Amino acid sequence: MDDMILTQKQFRSFFTKEGAFAGRSVRGYEYAWPKAIVPILIDDKIGERQRQMIADAINTIASKTCIRIRPATRYDDYAVFITNQHNGCFSEVGFVKKSTQLMNLHPEVAITLQFISMSSCMSLALLMSKVLQIEINM
User: Which is more confidently placed, 83 or 128?
Assistant: First the structure.
């Protein structure tokens, strides 16, 4: 499992003596999505079953948080592109001000998270983790 794609600044804030190891984190508005709205584009290669699992994760997040995830439009300057074309499960952390941020949810990856084994990163719990990873600063 690949997990997080960090900018250099995020890496320093997580893994240096001045960062998380000093009791700090990357929380804050710098990486927050504007107005807590996340536009997404779903790769055409993602099948109907995976799309439904993504929708379930998004609906669960919407019911429990202020985060709103919606389809991107041509008027959006930024969006998260959800694909399954790479190995692993990973996404960029927070809003990193790129026109397209990548989230990969490969369906054939076998992973183990502590005591929980999953045969795919397409489980609801892991999907919510990946989606919230893009929202970690809200």
Answer: 83
Determine what percent of the chain is predicted with pLDDT higher than 70.
57
β partners of residue 41: 81
The DSSP code for 22 is G
CA distance 69 to 17: 34
The catalytic residues are: 135
- Amino acid letter, residue 21: F
- Find, among 104, 101, 105, 96, the residue nearest to 124 by Cα: 105
pLDDT digits (tens, 9 = 90+) for 16-33: 555 444 444 445 567 778
* 31-42 pLDDT tens trace: 778 888 999 999
pLDDT of residue 34: 87
How do strand 37-42 and strand 68-71 relate by DSSP bridges? Answer: parallel
Sequence spans of domains, the chain? 3-133
Does CATH number 3.40.390.10 belong to domain 3-133?
A: yes
Instruction: Give the β-pairing of 79-83 and 100-105.
Output: parallel
d(CA 68, CA 4): 21
